[in-house]
Amino acid sequence: MRHSIPNWSIRVIALTLEAPKHEATHWTVRAMAKAVGIAASSIVKIWHEHGLAPHRWRSFKLSNDKAFAVKLHDVIGLYVSPPAHAIVLSVDEKSQIQAPRPHPARTSFKEGAGWHDDP
Predict the structure, then answer these.
(1) What is the DSSP string of 21-67?
(2) Alpha carbons 21 and 92: distance in angstroms, whole number
(3) What pTM was estimated for this model as a whole?
């Protein structure tokens, strides 16, 4: 016996795989429910049944810097053909990552003294 998927479920899956038309990076449960016209709980169920998690998808955006192509060529060149006796390091700024707090086992706190690292 073949299991058939309802049309509205197929529409949810198809829309999930497309970028949302509103200004957002991914579909939310509420936005999808509004777009399809069904309950948010149904969206959650469909996404779960089909292993979809749009909030976990990553995307790549090209820079709109006019010199991007030249910069990209220079960076790729470092990896493809590095200068003799050179070390190539890559540093990526992660502005959305919060600095880690000191681990309690590696720090001590004295009243009025504040946190500090053990030597």
Answers:
(1) SSS-SS--HHHHHHHHTS-HHHHHHHHHHTT--GGG---------TT
(2) 30
(3) 0.46
